Sequence to fold (705 residues):
Amino acid sequence: MIGHWVVLVQIAFRNLFSSFINLVIGVIIAVGTMLVVVGGAMLDSLDTAMSRSITGSLAGHIQVYSAASKDELAIYGGMTDDPSLAAVDDFPKVKRLLLGVPHVKTVVPMGINGALLMSGNTVDLTLAKLRGAVKARDAATASGAPAADLAEQVDSQKAHIRQIVKVLVEDAAKASVLADSHAVDDEAKQALATVSTEPFWEGFDRDPYSALELLENKIAPLVSDADMLYVRYVGTDLDAYQRAFDRMQVVDGQPVPAGRRGFLFPKFQYEEQLKLKTARRLDRIKEGLTESGKTIAGDSELQRFVRENQAQTREIVLQLDGLKTRTALARLNAALHSNETDLPTLLTRLFTTDDQNFMDRYRIFYEQLAPLLELYRVRIGDMLTVKAFTRSGYVQSVNVKVYGTFEFKGLEKSPLSGVTGLMDLMSFRDLYGYLSADKRDELRVLQAASGAKAVARENAEAELFGGGGPVVAEAKEGSIDEKAQLSGLKKAKKSEDLVARIYTPGEIEDGVVLNAAVVLDDPKALPQAIKAISELSAKEHLGLKVESWQQASGLLGEFVLAAKGILYFAVTIIFVVAVVVINNAMMMATLQRTQTLGTMRAIGAQRSFIVSMVLLETLVLGLLFGSAGAAAGAAVMAKLHATGIGAWSDAVYFFFSGPRIYPSLGAGNVVAAFLIILVVSVVSTLYPALIAMRVSPVTAMQAEE
Fold:
């Protein structure tokens, strides 16, 4: 029996290069093996990178939330960007039980919501400063304190408003010429005419609040540079979050202090949507030149940024008061070696950039002009008023301090991971409409001050409409003392300042959450952990829905699955083509050998011997050329691993888990490629082998006659 197979192997090696067809088949096998090795390794590397991006930023390895929720959880957005999730009421119990599951490292409480932030336009912000200065001056004057410095601040802000009005008058005149006489309505024209006169400003100090009302109601709306920003945020235990997601790093400012209320902006959104547009365009041009190898002369997008900066100088002019305008003119003239007296003209010259002068102009902007400007609508350290719809549909607001910005290492330019902010869990609960301990204390104070009493729902009608008690109170003459009525509330607020209050870990966790991220110590244990948590939820009646990071990622997770499906489909098509080509090639090779096969049959070769010979020849071809293809694939992967593949767009950053992906080759990729190619080769040879088996000796030997 061993001799039988030795003969077959000898015949297979002898016939290996006996025909050109075998060489063609070998090349197909080699190329197919190389494609399978490279394709499989790339698929695995992309899957690992995407998993690392999602699990390391927001999702964790597993997400759990209430099974009673109306919507599906979508960490990165889905059909409903902010899903309506039922609350997980007893999070401490859930956390304690989940930490007992094998491979569960930590559990982080979360909740997702969205809010609109409205930052005032340039006139609004300047008028707010003027109003504050007027109030401070008047208060100092009333108390007999020195008010000279405050009066100087008022005069400075007044000068700034007068300069803004001058710009608006010029804009209105240009609009009327370029468009039509009705480009600015008559009421606005009248208001501009009024505030442009000397008598208006001479009489400002006699009745400053009436003048401010006119400016705020009639002039501020003429400037349309206000930003309405939609912010999607995750409420969480910020300390636990930063420990669990080590890719998260604070870029500007500082982390929210332990136990404090606060907010962190995503760096990507902070730069793209809150930065002065001119400055952001300069940053984009610099990135294109230094990081992407683009040129202004050869890139239409960079050229558009240059044109927009040249034309849109108004947002800078409106920010500068008289003193700052003079300073800006002096600095820019010195830097540009000019004597221009008109600031807009000088700014246009500054922003007229090309590949030769851009870096110098960029430096001039940030060194000379930027210190005079407010580069961001919301600054680090500002108190931010966040308004959002609660779960019941009414609008709620909270004040939170902006402590800084953050990003995820390797995902700095990813829009997918750069548009979700982080908020403390206490503020999130207030915004979402859940009764927090602070709100409960506030209601108790109000109840005690007003003499109100709690009434059960079933007794409400009787109490209100004749339940045995008096329903008509005797009216007494006198005014309501609001200070006395609210003194208890004010005292409570003073002693429990929500912004300054420090919450204990128990207070943070002892409340409702909407979902929780489960981080594992071994990502490979994901299927077992999901099964164990599901069984635990059923056993302990926790009512949890348990999902992997891919399921919980919403549209992003679906996209990842679709992308993998497309890639696997492409590989399948390659296999089908390989089967057809190899089958046809083997068919031709078999037909060419009809006489030889018939002669072998005539001298006593059995059909099984012929079939084994044909299949073994293909197997030897597969092993030899498959090894060559695998070696070529390994060489390609070694090269890609050394140099990496750069992300060609911001969106690809997320899928590469950074600016470059360095794909690696695993032993499993090579083994899988060998098995697949050998199976394809053998399957492709079965039909030709059956044909060879059916060739009769007489017919085969007469084939040449």
Summary: Residues 36 and 422 are 42 Å apart (CA to CA).
